[in-house]
Specification:
about 350 residues, Rossmann fold, four-stranded parallel beta sheet, 13 helices, about 40% helix, about 15% strand
Length: about 350
């Protein structure tokens, strides 16, 4: 069955643009040619689109989605899979996604007004933290809000233990004999690594092993693989005589970007550098060598969030619940012992 992601890739636009157009063809934020292309591809792929005619608009049950960032990609290997789970579960119960906006898009006043007032929402799913002022606007106007890894204790939320997941990833490399381990990630809304959960897990694993975290071994790639690639290239040149032996990247896409830089500089993985990522997105198993990572059940997170939203609409929980999903370490050849890799 075709998904919003399939249409977005074919047309060359974001998933959020596709969802807005298919929810309301009169959306003024998308030009006419792009709208027509989206509708044409949707019909070609057999995507089930319900008509939003004025006499039936009130019968359509709509859920909005807001995500911290899609990092300027039509398809994001983490968030897009969550959207798939949300969309497929909602469709089983007669609901559909009204729109998918990013925090960056919502900074525009006209987009925020559209999100708050143009669609009669039954509820809103917020994926990771967004700007507090924007979030408060939604809380005033939307009756049911469900979070995915959102810190607000007053709403139902689906999460997993990112600190522990990161700690296990780094502890695995320590167990393989590594004592000098680099961290590549981003700081998020806080702008501080100390508040970023995957960094905290990295630091905790190092401290538990009696190892110091060196400031120059922590790279802020702002969650962008392009940044991770460039930073790693520059680092390998600057510290050529004093390099770490292992890299923990806070996402698979940053890990893969780092692997490319390492290989281009003539180093071997894992003989010279062990590399581990985070998420277990599909491409990670096809890198050379295959990437060790932490598997996060992203599709299932989307399904659980949709189910929780439906419950909140039909029969709200007496207290905000927090659902923790499991994660699974997946250790592949990128962190194998050097003797095993040769």
């Amino acid at each position: 069955m075709a998904t919003l992601k399939d249409i977005a890739v074919r047309v060359g636009v974001s998933v959020s643009t596709v969802s807005r157009v298919l929810a309301n063809d009169s959306n003024r934020l998308v030009n006419t040619d792009t709208k027509q292309k989206i509708w044409d591809v949707a019909h070609e792929l057999g995507y089930q689109v319900k008509s939003l005619q004025p006499d039936t608009a009130q019968a359509v049950k709509l859920i909005g989605c807001v995500v911290s960032t899609l990092q300027n990609r039509h398809y994001h290997p983490y968030f897009s899979v969550i959207f798939d789970g949300i969309e497929k579960e909602l469709s089983k119960h007669g609901y559909k996604i009204a729109y998918t906006y990013t925090q960056e898009e919502l900074q525009k006043p006209e987009v925020l007004r559209s999100a708050l007032h143009d669609s009669p929402l039954e509820g809103l799913i917020v994926i990771e933290g967004i700007d507090s002022k924007i979030y408060e606007h939604f809380k005033k106007h939307v009756k049911a809000i469900v979070g995915i890894d959102v810190s607000d204790p007053n709403i139902p939320c689906i999460a997993y233990d990112r600190v522990e997941a990161a700690r296990i990833a780094v502890s695995h490399m320590i167990g393989q004999g590594h004592r000098d381990i680099m961290f590549i990630g981003g700081t998020g809304l806080s702008g501080r690594f100390e508040k970023e959960k995957r960094y905290r897990g990295y630091k905790l694993a190092m401290e538990q092993a009696g190892l110091a975290v060196q400031e120059n071994r922590v790279l802020d790639a702002a969650w962008e693989p392009d940044n991770a690639y460039r930073l790693m290239l520059a680092y390998l040149e600057e510290y050529a005589g004093n390099l770490p032996t292992a890299v923990f990247a806070a996402s698979d896409i940053m890990a893969m970007a780092s692997m490319r830089a390492i290989s281009e500089k003539g180093y071997r993985i894992p003989q010279d550098f062990a590399v581990i990522g985070f998420d277990d997105n599909e491409p990670s198993r096809y890198t050379v060598p295959p990437l060790s990572t932490i598997r996060i059940p992203t599709f299932e997170i989307g399904v659980i969030a949709a189910k929780t939203m439906l419950q909140c609409i039909r029969d709200p929980y007496p207290l905000p619940i927090r659902i923790y999903v499991p994660f699974e370490p997946v250790f592949r050849q990128s962190t194998a012992r050097a003797a095993e890799a040769d």
